Amino acid sequence: MQQRVITAVFFAAAMLAGVFISKETFIALFALVAAGSAWEYSGLVFDAAERGILLRRVVTTVLSAAVFGFGAAHQLYYGGPLETNWAYPAIGFGILALGELFGGSHRPFDNLGRYFVALLYIVLPLVLLCDIAMLPAGVPGAQVYFPWRVMGLLFLIWTNDTMAYFVGSKLGKNKLFERISPKKTWEGSIGGALFTLAMALGLSYVLPEFNRTQWLALGATAAVFGTLGDLVESMLKRSLAIKDSGSLLPGHGGLLDRFDAFFFYLPFAWLILKYLSLDLV
Asked: Which pTM was predicted?
């Protein structure tokens, strides 16, 4: 218990400092989150018996941090959406394919798929977070960074996760998805959703970054897709017969365990804001 508390205190301090000090610390913080999560993910999905497993993990980690860094810098310094240029993923595929060509793997295209899943699962949602943290594209001052937007989304996910656990542990009887996560219950999920909506309503009074309709929509989306994101990562771990994604956070498992719901939630939060007149592109 003491180790969990100490880790939680340092984790919270790092998150607050990274989000609020400057957009540079924001980029550094989430580049580390992307890299750490990608390191854990690659350790789960690549075949440890194959030659070159360490190199593949390093490539996945560096690639994830680099792609996030490029996307974040583009958003936070230049404003507006990333240019749609299919040459970049095509070039990336070519480079990774050449690595597999000389890597000697028995299933090279399985490995290529694992690289790209890391980008889709971990990195691209964080790039969308950068877009959410900015003023609407195309207006003066589009490079302004809004840390409370980021922290508000984190509050919603953390509220849903924490309160679903507490309500489920006290009142939970009916299993939500026993095949994947035996401890999750409908009672816990409903309780988490209600507390998350209450948090969203509270945020609408104190944080003018979004209007009340947007905050409530973001809260409802967090309750649904945060829970589903947790189940998706549980599906991955259950398929590999493991409990935690890693041990980077002593007493709490790995970074991927802490951010799985957030990663899964972000694209849907981005869509909600896009269609509720924040003018994201």
From this structure: 0.89
